[in-house]
Amino acid sequence: MTIEVALFYVFALVAVLGALGLLLNFRNLVAGAICLVATMVSLGAIYVLLGAYFLAAVQIMVYAGAIVVVFLFVIMLLNIRTDVFTPSQQLLFKIFGILIAGFVLFQFLTAIAGGLPAFPTTPDGFGGYRDIAGALFARGDAREGTQVVGDFILPFEIASLLLLAAIVGSVVLAKRRLE
Amino acid sequence: MIPVEHVLGLSAILFLIGTVGALTRRNIIVLLMCIELMLNAASLAFVGFNRLWPVKEAGATVSALNGQVFVLMVIVVATAEVAVGLGIVISLFRNRDSMNVEDVSLLKW
Amino acid sequence: MLTGVIVKIAFVFAMIMGLFAPLMTWVERKQSAVMQDRIGANRADIAGITLLGLLHPLTDVIKLITKEDVVPLGANRLLHLISPLLAVVPALISFAVIPFGGTYQLGEGTYNLVVADCDWGVLYLFAIGSIAAYGTILSGWASNNNWSLLGSLRGSAQMISYEVCMGLSLVGVMMVFGTLKLSEMSHAQDTTFRLLGFLELFGWVSVLPWWVDWIRVPNWGIFLQPLGCIMFLTAIMAENKRPPFDQPEGESEIIAGYFTEYSGMRFGLFYTAEFVEVVVIAGIMTAIFLGGWSIPYLSTQTIIDGVSSVIGTSIATILCIVLHVLTFWIKVCFMIWVQMGLRWLLPRFRYDQLMDLCWKNMLPLSLANIVVTALILLWIDGMAR
């Protein structure tokens, strides 16, 4: 076992423990959020081990650095000291949750048991978007960094519009009515 | 070389925990965090697949980054979702003074 | 390989924790004293010898270590314990990607004077910088004190806001140098460019007098991206929460902000984190905007070519290494001096002014900077083709 694989298992353990901490921590919201940070950061480390350096940086920057910080900010802004721990009344939801969990597990196990194919079988470049993008915009060159703006220019632009909509939406939602 | 099956297994475990959390916890903020966890698990699977299939077809020289670009899009969507979701949480807390999703049942029939 | 990395880590750690962090407390007191026309720290002495007040850092450490360690009633003990660590560790590890010297051929081996030469160095800095917010946020929450909570609320909002501007103001530099690797950025700044060279692109080269070729400027980020440089310095100083951006601490409003309830060495860790971050900021500014380890108008090749005939190539390379490392730390000292000067020159921002500066002024300006830089780069590219 190389050091790389050993580190993967260590970070995987931290990620699972952090997720369990978020799930099972009923008393303290802030501690739950910190558990989530542990998961996010160890996922970032796993991305480094998998060779996805850019994603690792973005993962830590966006998830650990922005999203969970905003969660904590809201928790503090609303000053929620203790969690409202009301056990779920609906048995239906619990059964549903266990069913979905079983379904995902089943899917995973069948996918692993069949062995993974040597090459992707799905359509390339977000399905047919690539052709649309190719028709709309000039293709970028084949360097790795430009692939985002080459093959994926259409999803990329749509993502920017989505972000703009989210900015406007959150401002409208959270602002106090000024009469 | 990290076995991709184990990466997928970790992804499945995290997704399960996120699903169970989203379906059983009652606190809106915890709910949102569990949804983030599920998105992260999916991203991890994408990165694993990207590692498994570094090129698109046999003999190709250009490395494929489809999985990583997918993750980038997932992160964008997650960011947008959190921004809007927390806006809703704040206005909800102002109006209802509660974090419990079961108190928000006006549109339920 | 591994021993080289360990030696480099030891060197950087010794420079920061052994030399800069203790001296900073002295520099801060002494500079404030000079700027306010006082004598300043000069009382701590051993048998009457005060050494210009240089013994004060020592007494500080003794005081901080021997003080009682108070954990307030109702505080979350674990979070209260780990938040000073969360403040100090990101500050320390972000120096890993900052090059304090270039890449040198010495005998058989190649020596690269940076601890971790990441391709994504700038992104690493951003990622680590965003982690640093947790120390602020958690300390306020864990203290069970309303003033601390207010401080950490202010701190988290300020840090998230200025992170955006910090990232966007660096995009221009990334485009100009075409890399995210800090060592490559520093290496690209080891040359000069003709100040009026762009006139060639108009085809005016024949009407220019010959001496125009001699008006050369070092190829530094500050000359290529002046606006980006100023905005980055502002944003990263706001990230560090020192005056004039010390809203989260705001002594006159909220006692001491997020670390009100900390005492002894835990408080000392927050202070250390602040000072280490000053050094890190100076390092980042030096590596990206002030030419890194390069000596202006005297590139590495010039030095080696000039003196190797006299003393031999290997000794010339060693001379180069020494000169470059010295240059780097001198530039770092200059940037520290700038930050200390700004600290005492400017009054604290009001909170709405702080947010206005970020969202209404710096964000549009940095976006405009990106667009203008991209247009100019495209134009030069098209002209040169």
How would you summarize the topology of this molecule?
The complex is a heterotrimer of chains A (179), B (109) and C (385).
Chain A: H1 3-24, H2 29-49, H3 53-77, H4 91-113, H5 129-136, H6 147-150, H7 153-174
Helix pairs in contact in A: 1-2, 2-3
Chain B: H1 4-24, H2 28-52, H3 66-96
Helix pairs in contact in B: 1-2, 2-3
Chain C: H1 2-35, H2 56-66, H3 77-93, E1 103-106, E2 109-112, H4 121-131, H5 133-142, H6 146-177, H7 182-188, E3 192-194, E4 216-218, H8 221-224, H9 226-240, H10 251-254, H11 264-288, H12 300-311, H13 313-345, H14 351-384
Antiparallel strand pairs in C: 1-2, 3-4
Helix pairs in contact in C: 1-11, 2-11, 3-5, 3-11, 5-6, 6-9, 6-14, 9-11, 9-14, 11-13, 12-13
Brief descriptors of the model:
heterotrimer; A: 179 residues; Four Helix Bundle (Hemerythrin (Met), subunit A); 2 domains; 7 helices; 70% helix; globular; C: 385 residues; mainly alpha; two-stranded antiparallel ribbon
Short description:
With 109 residues, chain B is mainly alpha-helical. Chain B contains three helices and no strands. Chain B has one domain: Helix Hairpins (Orthogonal Bundle), CATH 1.10.287.3510.
The portion of residues forming beta strands of chain B comes to: under 5%
Q: Greatest chain-chain interface?
A: A-B, 85 and 78 residues
Largest sheet of chain A: none
Alpha-beta classification of chain A: mainly alpha
CATH topology of the largest domain in chain A, anyone? Answer: Four Helix Bundle (Hemerythrin (Met), subunit A)
Shape of chain B: elongated
Task: Tell me roughly what share of residues is in helical segments of chain A.
Answer: 55-70%
CATH class of chain B: Mainly Alpha
Oligomer: heterotrimer
State the end-to-end CA separation of chain A.
66 Å
- Which stretches of chain B are poorly predicted, pLDDT < 50 over at least 5 residues? none
CATH class of the largest domain in chain A: Mainly Alpha
How do the helices and strands follow one another from N- to C-terminus of chain B? HHH
